[in-house]
């Protein structure tokens, strides 16, 4: 019975919202976004990815706050395609008019092939 109760407690903690996990949990996504941005800068994403597509650099909280889902999705796809290509796998840059499900399917398929 102890094992069952322990697993139940773990499950309950996993289902807790940000308020139940502590005061800093609500800001975790902002920290992750800043880490992502630092890593992209180390890879020279501004010169290699954004300039090629005539796009603006990301703000510190670009993906942390839902502002324009269509634009954010296209930016995500652009960065994913660039990172896949940078890793040595040729990958066609998605277009804004492409079917989002097909784009995500292609990205995931390419990542699985790694």
Automatic annotation (TrEMBL):
Protein's cellular compartments: Cell projection, Cilium
Coiled-coil residues: none
Name the UniProt record assigns to this protein: Intraflagellar transport protein 57 homolog
Origin species: Toxostoma redivivum
GO CC annotation, single: cilium
Biased composition (Basic and acidic residues): 1-19
UniProt superkingdom: Eukaryota
One GO term (biological process): intraciliary transport
Record has Lyase as a keyword: no
Region Disordered: start-end pairs: 1-22
Family: Belongs to the IFT57 family.
Record's keyword annotation contains Zinc: no
Keywords: Cell projection, Cilium
């Amino acid at each position: 019975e102890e094992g069952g109760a322990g697993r139940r407690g773990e499950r309950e903690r996993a289902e807790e919202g940000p308020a139940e996990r502590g005061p800093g949990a609500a800001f975790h996504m902002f920290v992750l976004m800043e880490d992502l941005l630092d890593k992209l800068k180390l890879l020279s994403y501004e010169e290699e990815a954004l300039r090629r597509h005539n796009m603006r650099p990301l703000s510190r909280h670009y993906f942390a706050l839902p502002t324009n889902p269509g634009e954010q999705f296209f930016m995500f796809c652009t960065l994913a395609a660039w990172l896949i290509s940078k890793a040595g796998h040729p990958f066609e840059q998605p277009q804004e008019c492409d079917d989002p499900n097909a784009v995500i399917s292609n990205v995931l398929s390419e990542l699985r092939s790694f």
